[in-house]
Design goal:
- With 307 residues, the protein is α+β, with helices and mostly antiparallel strands.
- It has nine helices and twelve strands.
- It has a ten-stranded antiparallel beta sheet. Strands 7-12 form a two-stranded antiparallel ribbon.
- Strand 8 (124-128) and strand 9 form a beta hairpin.
- Helix 5 packs antiparallel against helix 9.
- It is elongated and about 80 Å long.
């Protein structure tokens, strides 16, 4: 399930590696000469006088595409293949970034599910270029259309997937990986260590679960004590049924409310938070959506088979 990684390895490789790369360019910065180029699969490499850096998709380098996920053993083979291809011991390279992802076949297009993916504690939620992002500090997670992504990157979609909807969820450790994982070091060989591999898949699944899922709302007569309460429930149901991004709409309305100073109190920030929490609670309090059930079931099914 590992995809994009950034690997750094100390050593002198300026004489051996550049001839094995494509699109090589020479650079001079602060008196230091270095080159960068691409592997046959399109992954980037930077070669300095005393170290080398690889950045790109392991499955794409090893198998030619990253449409489907690779397991622990294929991760090992990919890193060994990288080492053999360039004569560099990437097995003991330092890992400074890595992504964990899983692609599943879904009944509908990926963006159909976005409106039902709510907030995630500490993360900032946003939609950019038809992908749903959650960002916090040096880490992010994302739902996106894997088939569109593959086509945009020139990958060939296998015939048996041409008419399928491919939804991918990724967890990305972008920077300061050691601090995030509370480790003193992280080597490429650790990526296929069984204990570490299972731990990272557990982290990935927990991050999926931490996204609050919106409900398929129904009328709750026990919470209706006035015509306005009924109107609130009807409007909430209509919002969800319309397929718009409810979370984005709520955020926009609250921004307007702040600009208009709707809460003229001694602690308006607290009041806005209470209002937002109440809205999210209502949106999450109904019957589970069939779309949410589908994602939950398929991700859970895959995570049960760690290897």
């Amino acid at each position: 399930m590992f995809d994009t990684v950034v690997l750094n390895r100390e050593g002198a490789f300026l004489e051996s590696v550049p001839s094995l790369l494509y699109g090589v360019k020479e650079h001079q910065k602060d008196g230091v000469y270095y080159i960068n180029g691409y592997t046959k699969g399109g992954q980037q490499m930077w070669v300095y006088p005393d170290n080398i850096r690889f950045a790109g998709s392991l499955p794409k380098f090893h198998l030619g595409d990253n449409i489907k996920s690779i397991g622990r053993k294929d991760t090992q083979r990919a890193i060994e293949n990288l080492s053999d291809t360039f004569g560099v011991d990437f097995i003991n390279a330092d890992v400074t970034r890595f992504d964990i992802g899983l692609t599943i076949e879904t009944n509908y297009t990926p963006d159909t599910y976005y409106p039902l993916m709510g907030t995630s504690k500490q993360y900032t939620r946003s939609i950019y270029k038809n992908s749903l992002y959650y960002r916090v500090g040096q880490r992010e997670k994302s739902f996106y259309n894997k088939k569109k992504d593959a086509k945009a990157k020139g990958m060939i979609i296998p015939d048996f997937l041409i008419n399928k909807h491919l939804t991918r969820f990724e967890l990305r450790y972008l920077k300061k990986v050691l601090n995030q994982l509370n480790r003193s070091e992280l080597k490429a060989l650790d990526l296929y260590d069984e204990v570490f591999y299972i731990q990272m898949l557990d982290n990935w699944y927990q991050e999926y679960q931490s996204v609050k899922k919106l409900s398929c709302m129904q009328i709750d007569k026990n919470s209706i004590s006035s015509p306005s309460h009924l109107a609130d429930q009807v409007m909430a149901n209509l919002l969800l049924a319309s397929g718009i991004d409810v979370m984005a709409g709520v955020d926009e309305i609250l921004k307007q409310a702040k600009a208009l100073k709707v809460f003229d109190t001694s602690n308006p920030s607290r009041d806005y938070k209470r209002a937002k929490d109440a809205i999210y609670k209502r949106l999450s309090s109904g019957k589970d959506s069939e779309l949410v059930k589908e994602l939950d079931s398929k991700f859970k099914e895959h995570i049960q088979f760690y290897r």
